[in-house]
Design a protein that fits this description.
Blueprint: H1 3-6, H2 8-14, H3 42-56, H4 60-68, H5 83-90, H6 93-101
Helix pairs in contact: 3-4, 3-5, 5-6
Length: 111
């Protein structure tokens, strides 16, 4: 489930759908605004964290989207796991292979 990371409209577009509702600037549809990152603004939110979350959920199409937006395949996220570790823990073997093709490493591998 990637829409809590992106927002419903962007998640729908990322997966090839179309957004159905429109809103004016600043509308959050009752959700809190996304937090500002201390580490590079939108790249962290839309790249690294998004890629990690997509891999944690076993969502290859979403992972490709976040990789194109600058996500780091070796970013260490929650539980000290990289996207590769998160995909492995989820059991998404095709995603693990795809990440390996993009030079992803596990936290257990030497740097």
């Amino acid at each position: 489930m990637i829409w809590p990371v992106l927002g419903e409209g962007e998640a729908i577009r990322a997966l090839g759908g179309q957004q159905r509702r429109r809103a004016g600037p600043g509308c959050t549809f009752g959700r809190r605004r996304r937090p500002r990152s201390r580490r590079g603004g939108d790249r962290w939110w839309y790249g690294d964290l998004g890629l990690w979350s997509a891999c944690h959920g076993g969502q290859r199409q979403a992972a490709e989207f976040f990789l194109q937006r600058g996500g780091d395949v070796n970013w260490v996220g929650y539980d000290q796991l990289t996207p590769l570790d998160a995909a492995r823990r989820t059991g998404a073997d095709d995603l693990v292979t795809w990440l390996r093709d993009h030079d992803a490493k596990s936290t257990s591998e030497p740097s």
